[in-house]
Amino acid sequence: MSASSTKSILVTGGAGYIGSHTVLQLLLSGCHVAAVDNLDNSSHLAISRVSHLAADSANRLSFHKLDLRDRPALERVFSSNKFDAVIHFAGLKAVGESVAKPLFYYNNNVIGTIVLLEVMAAYGCKKLVFSSSASVYGSPERVPCTEDFPLAPMNPYGKTKLVVEDICRDLHRADPEWQIMLLRYFNPVGAHPSGLLGEDPRGIPNNLMPYVQQVAVGRRPALTVFGNDYSTKDGTGIRDYIHVVDLADGHNAALTKLFEKDSKIGCEAYNLGTGKGTSVLEIVSAFEKASGKKIPVVFGERRPGDCEILYAATTKAETQLNWKAKYGIEEMCRDQWNWACNNPYGYGSSDSNPQDEIISTKTKGGGDSWFSDICITS
Ligand code: NAD
Ligand code: UD1
Predict the structure, then answer these.
(1) How many CA atoms lie within 13 Å of 3's alpha carbon, on the beta-carbon side?
(2) Is 188 in the pocket of ligand 2 (CB under 6 A)?
(3) Which ranges carry the NAD(P)-binding domain (predicted)?
């Protein structure tokens, strides 16, 4: 039980990769959760599976399919609930796509957040946890990155994160009742140990771990390593990979801080990472070990916009949030592989994983479908 248990939390983007893991942790820690998502980059099956994993706690979950920019739909959710805080994951996250379609990204990520903040203010909910990103640091001059480093995102995606951070800082300055945690994630990977929840990227994955996974299951022939001439231990890029379950726990820790008696957090940024740097080739080798599969690699050019080495300073989150990542690369690869084996095509169609049949059979509540018992579609 944490200070945040029994609270009522709105989770935007709750059907997404990090959102679904966090919704599960919140339910298990005693919270009431309303998840909203437009399902543009996720599947309703993620919510079904969260419900299944939450077992008895699932009666504290509701799901609302809506776009954050649909103000009347969002207001309907606020008018029928009294939320103690909002965790705001909903957003678009593909860096390359953001370069090609900047307006699409600013519209979704910035306008969606403004509508959310306005509706929160109208309903007197002024506690927010926002999904920011290490991409706000751009290419830092040194590592580890502390939260006070200059902010210089290098692409429209990262810029939407900085704009929202700035909006939050201004909002708190104008009205100190707002209490806001800006969580800067490093590289979330891995999956729920059950093998039921994980990342399901649409199209060709941009990020390393989902790409490696798809090579391991035979969906792609080889991994192209973007550059092996960096001045790192093996010449390949170094990042701070963090298990998605650790990240979900980090949100629980952030809420606990927000709900501390007389908490005056203000508007604060926290890195959520492990503080450890791992190279591309080290990930490949750890994944080969976890999966027993050979991952063929091809060395290619550096990816434009990539930095050489990025990892987090973790002291602020450790001391102020009392949170520290527990899992290492081995567990990240183990759980990623378990997810891949159970869901080689992600959530795919509803019959892609035989467990979905079992889940829906076991949890049907006598209505049209079990899902409709928790789903309020606006
Ligand atoms: P995701 O795409 O799996 O989840 C985001 C969810 O938000 C999706 O389910 C999508 O359908 C939903 N969504 C998007 N726009 C919406 C809108 N306007 N209204 C309602 N729902 C909407 O991504 P994720 O990996 O779970 O990331 C969650 C958040 O964390 C994002 O804001 C992302 O930018 C941020 N983040 C992610 C990473 C990462 O590598 N995964 C790293 C740093 C920050
Ligand atoms: C990328 C985004 C960043 C975002 C982060 C987490 C870019 C430029 N940056 O960062 O904004 O916050 O994802 O979502 O896209 N790699 C390969 N081959 C591949 C894929 C990746 O060698 O097919 C390498 C990359 O060069 C990098 C490492 O693997 O060295 C990790 O890449 P990735 O998973 O895309 O994460 P980031 O580069 O940290």
Answers:
(1) 15
(2) no
(3) 10-335
Using the atom order of ligand 2, give the atom closest to the CA of residue 283. 29
Q: To test the ligand 1 pocket, which listed residue (37, 98, 347) has its Cβ within 8 A of the most ligand atoms?
A: 37
Q: Tell me the Cα Rg of the chain.
A: 20
Ligand 1: does its nearest atom lie under 6 Å from the Cβ of 287? no
Helices (H) and strands (E) in the chain, counts: 14, 14
Q: Distance (Å, rounded) from C-alpha 20 to C-alpha 25?
A: 9
For residue 359, what are its two tokens?
A: 């889940």
pLDDT band at 356 (very low <50, low <70, confident <90, very high): low
Is residue 359 within 8 A of residue 49, CB to CB? The reply is yes
| Rounded CA separation 341/352 (Å) | 12
Could you say which ligand is closest to the alpha carbon of residue 135? 2
Q: Residue 368, SS3?
A: coil
CA 189, CA 245: separation in Å to the nearest integer? 9
Residue-wise pLDDT tens digits, 364-374: 333 223 343 45
Query: Which tens digits make up the pLDDT trace of 68-119?
Result: 999 999 999 999 999 999 999 999 999 999 999 999 999 999 999 999 999 9
**Rounded to the nearest whole angstrom, what is the distance from the C-alpha of residue 266 to the centroid of ligand 1?**
24
- 195 and 339 Cβ atoms separated by less than 8 Å: yes
Give residue 13 CA to ligand 1 midpoint distance, Å.
6
The tokens for 110 are 């910035």
Return the SS3 of 354.
Answer: helix
Is 157 assigned a catalytic role? yes
Residue 310: which of 338, 348, 271 has the closest Cα? 271
The CA distance from 222 to 297, in Å, is: 5
Give me ligand 2 centre to Cα 318, in Å.
25
